[in-house]
Amino acid sequence: MNTKMSVLRDKSKNDRAFTLVELLVVMAVLALLVAMLLPALANSQPDSRSFRCMNNQRQLVVGWRMYAEDNNDYLAGNDFPFLTAVGSIIPQSNAANWAPGSMAVSGDSTNIAHLKNPTIAQLFNYLKTADVYKCPADKNPFVRSVSMNSAVGTRWYSPPVSTPRGQAPVEGGWLPGTYNPAQTTWLTYAKFSSIARPSPANLWVIMDEHPNSINDSVAYIPAVPNILVAVPASYHDGGAAGLVFADGHTEIHRWQDPRTIFPVGGSSPNNVDTVWLSQRTSALR
Hints:
The protein is α+β, with helices and mostly antiparallel strands. It has one domain. The chain has helices at about 1-15, 20-45, 50-70, 105-110, 115, 125, 260, 270-280, and strands spanning about 145-150, 205-210, 220, 225-230, 240-245, 250-255, 265. The protein has a five-stranded mixed sheet, with helices on one face. Strands 4-7 form a two-stranded antiparallel sheet. The protein is globular.
């Protein structure tokens, strides 16, 4: 009997409820943990603008591929004249390009009609919207925030005399790091089938370009390191840009060097970002 009562007393002691003070302590600890975790959780949430940027660029490169399929494998034009207004080009069809218009010309930079005009916007029939030319994270008034690799595409505005319009490869004048329109050191690509070095998975085609350097349709990224001519944007994740590659995959690439994120242009020695970009821009002939 005494043994049984002792067991019941012990059980009663072990099963007792928390006191009010103990509950308050537990609640305070939980509140503290939540307060500590919320910032980390917020930072870990994916930025929806990054996903939309990647979707936009993926649509652009799909349209770019479809254009080539409909044009004997020849890629869309990528030689829109620097600082030239679309309206000054006669006949207007000579302004045809994957992205006609210069973002450095006031009449073009905010005029989305050029990107919707099927006479000159070579990808529009495959896209059906011009919104995909603009990164959702770009708050500038420009209608376009992306540009194309200067090694990729055909010459439409200024074809060589001996070559039909839209069949000669772009010159790639800035690929050597100093401008040379007659350069023959680095590969340029007029047809999709000509993209072999680098492979389509390693050749970037379209990239977010910094608003301070964006103008015509071309992003002048050299195929040699330590030089910034055109500058990539840093719209995402505190210093990253969206890129889409010839095989169709997209990336949000974070820049490592502050000179890329806060660009000054020109020589940029020991800049690891220029090394990464140059290896994916072209290859030696």
